[in-house]
Amino acid sequence: MLNRYPLWKYLLILVVLVVGLIYSLPNLFPADPAIQLSSAQGETLELRQIQRVESALEENGIAVKASEQENGQWLIRLRNDEDQLNARDIAAEQLDGEATVALNLAEATPGWLQAFSASPMTLGLDLRGGVHFLLEVDMDAALTQRLEVNASAMRELLRSERIRYRNTDVEGRTLSIDFASSEDRDSARRLISRDFPNFDFTSEGSDRSSRLVMTLSDQTVNEIQDYAINQNLTTLRNRVNELGVAEPMVQRQGPNQIVVELPGIQDTVAAKRIVGATANLEFRLEARNDTPTAETETHVFRNDSARSAELMRDVIITGDSVSSASNSFDENGRPQVNINLDGTGGTLMNRATRTNIGRNMAVLFIEHKSEDTVVTDPETGEETIEREPYVERGLISLATIQSALGNSFRITGLDSPTEAAELALLLRSGSLAAPIYFVQERTIGPSLGAENIERGLLSVQIGLLLVVLFMLVRYKVFGIFANVALALNLTLLVAVMSMLGATLTLPGIAGIVLTLGMAVDANVLIFERIREELRNGLSIQQAIHAGYERAFTSIVDANITTLLVAVILFSIGTGPVKGFAVTLSIGILTSMFTALMVTRAMVNLTYGSKPVKKLWI
Length: 617
Known about the structure:
transmembrane; Hypothetical Protein, Haloacid Dehalogenase-like Hydrolase, Chain: A, domain 2; Multidrug efflux transporter AcrB transmembrane fold; SecD_SecF_C; alpha+beta; Alpha-Beta Plaits; 26% strand; protein-transporting ATPase activity; 16 helices; SecDF_P1_head
């Protein structure tokens, strides 16, 4: 019979709508503004400290909603967004360096919804707040690092061929080696040029002042700089993923800059410490007493500057050879980092340790930093900031090699569990190919994000109201069907985005507004087709059936073309464009379901198999 669905279709529609309702409900419970308290020493804060903070907040008129402890950190939920910054300052003053205080947003989804693994949509930087960093890659340091690696390999090559040399110097894009005779220099040139073809070679001086000068070619310099920026992009993405940030943005800007946006992160200091860390490790052997001074370096211990050790300049492996790392505790309860090396790193470590059993091996921690100095032009009085980069090196441990090491071993001598966790994170995510410096940093507070959300919701409400009024005036009873389907479409759209973990941004809200307008297009096509069939003399039941059947092809064609455009936008776009494409794509799919199935089910239940004298359409 015409205009009747089998029972399974009604049940399918009902199940989809119920599931959509459950997974869209968490969005009615926005995250609470909160301050996060964690011990500066990596230990759990005591309850009396939290109570002292709560009392201070209440004395200053700041309402506390709840306090809870999770993963060794305390979270104090507040009732008003406007109190968050003030609460952070009060808590920091009360604890006076005993803890790190950061802004946070605490999830407020009820427990019964969490039992279904339901959670609200992830909000983007412009809605939730967060941090924005503009980083600059030090290209000169990238060249220096590559030259130092080449210098170490060249020294090993010369020693293996028993060619005597004295000093190796790195300056700019040039590496030079001094020799005791012209014969040694010429032999070294033939040997090195075979294995290092990316240099332009020049011989200078003669006899005891012989020198071989090697300059990187322009093509090689460009390749090193491109590698540095791309490797840093990969490393930063890995670090951001380790932080657990949803839908971050890490992308290149210009020849030597990188933009990083971290939605939901309010603790700028912690984010900078992880994102901007340029730390790396070097594993070196301790120098023997008879080692020439030109082949050794003196380094002090990080946690005891009074202690130092003479190390070989040659590096066994660096942190780049680490394939995985995790932090734990040793048998004495002290923090340690467990390291696994890749195949090449394991081979180099085994080769170096099996021939040096009984000798000490050091773990050297290297960190690139910079110091900004304000310089005033004596003529114009204009102030400019000059960045002076510097490198800090310190020994983490110096241990005796008891047996040949392989792909797995551990590092001890760390100050705290927090330091061990951060070092493991940096090693897992990879080291930076070149130092990076913060050119710009901007924090978008939750209050600004709340204002954006309010405006976005207002735009959705206005768009929804206009569409509802138009459909009611134009199509009467059928307009009611279309409006109910429109509300269900919005519910399903929010539910699918929540289930997929998609990020909602302001452009995404624009996509939702556009979806609301497009969602009724299918109903307009169907309803106009029903009117046309009625004018052609068909009965009411036949006109309804023909309207849905004959409009189906047009609806599918129109929506597929729009969906293809959305997919293209998502594949080639970045940031805001992707947010718009995601909501548009999901909205197209949900609107086709509600227009073709949900409204048809309502029409069938209302008019199907019933004698109808007049159709209000």
